[in-house]
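agent: user wants the structure for BIG2 domain-containing protein from Ferrigenium kumadai. delegating to structure tool.
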Amino acid sequence: MNFPLSNQGHRDLFAYLAAVFVVLLILVHPGDVPPLNVSSSLLQIKVGNTASINVSDASGDVSARSSDSNIATVSYDHGAAFIKGLSAGSVTITIWDKESSQRVAVAVMPSVGGEAVTSAPGVPAT
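agent: tool returned. relaying C-alpha cells verbatim.
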C-alpha cells in the first residue's frame, strides 16, 4: 500500500523525526562530565615511604606522571595513585583522564632515624 503525503504531512514527519533525533542526542550525550577528582592536592611524605591518593569521577583510562621521577614516582591502579618518595625535594604529580586533569603538590622530606626532618622557612634542616 502506498499512502501519499501532502506537503503538510512531509513537514509534520520531518518535525517528528527532528524531535526524535534531538531527544536521542540528549540521551546519548548528556552534557558535561564531572571533572576528575583527587582526595588531596597537597601531600608530604618521607623518603622511602609510599602514600596513596584516591581518584574518583574518572572518565575512561587514568594516567599519572611525576614532574621529577628522581624525587618521587607515581603509579595508578584501581582508583588510587601511589606516590613513592625517593629523595628529598618537591614535585608535581599530574593525574589525568580523557576529560580533565588534576595536580598534586608533593613534598618529599628526608628521613633521619625514621623521622622526617623539617625546618622553619629560611632555616636549614639539620
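agent: one observation worth passing along. Helices lie at 7-28.
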